[in-house]
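User: Predict the structure for this protein chain, please.
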Amino acid sequence: FFSNCFLAASASGLRENILRRHDSKRYNNLHSFYTLMPFRTELKIKEVEGGEEFELLEALIYEGNTDTFIVPAGFIMDFASIPGWANWLLPKLGKYNKAAVVHDYCYYAKPLVSGGMRRITRREADGVFRKIMRELGVPMWQRYTIWLAVRLAGWVYWYRLLKSDKTCLHLWHK
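Assistant: Here is the predicted structure, written as C-alpha cells:
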C-alpha cells in the first residue's frame, strides 16, 4: 500500500508510474495534460535601451483553466527579477520567460479574474506563475526556488506598485 503512495518526484517518473498501473488510454490523457501549452501566441520581444528591460512586440495570450490573461503589446518587463549574485544558479532568462511575463503583468496591472468580478490577488498571481512554469517544463527545483523567492520578496513590489502612479489598473483589460 505505502509503495503506491510514493510517486516519483519528476513528471517523467510520475508518467512511468502511471503507465505501469493503468491502461495506456488513461496514461495518454494524463500525458497530454502535462504537455498542454495554453499559450495562444508566441513571445516576441525587443530589448529596451539599457538592456535591463524588454518590450513585448505582440500581445502574449495565456489561457488558464478559468481565466485568460492578455499581456498587451508594448508592455515593459524585466523577466525574472533575479539578483545578480544568484545568476549562476538561476539565470534571468530561461524556460520560465513566458511565465515571468504573465507574472510581471499580474503584478503591474492586477487584471480582472473570476469572470471580471474582482482583481487578482498576489497569492493567485504567484500561483499562476508556478503553474505556468510547471506547464513550460521548468524543473521542479527551479520553479519552487523562484516561486519561494517571489512569495518571500514579491510583496515589496506588489505594494510599491499599488501606491505608485505606475500601476495601470485602468488600462489593458478585457
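The two ends are 49 Å apart (CA to CA).
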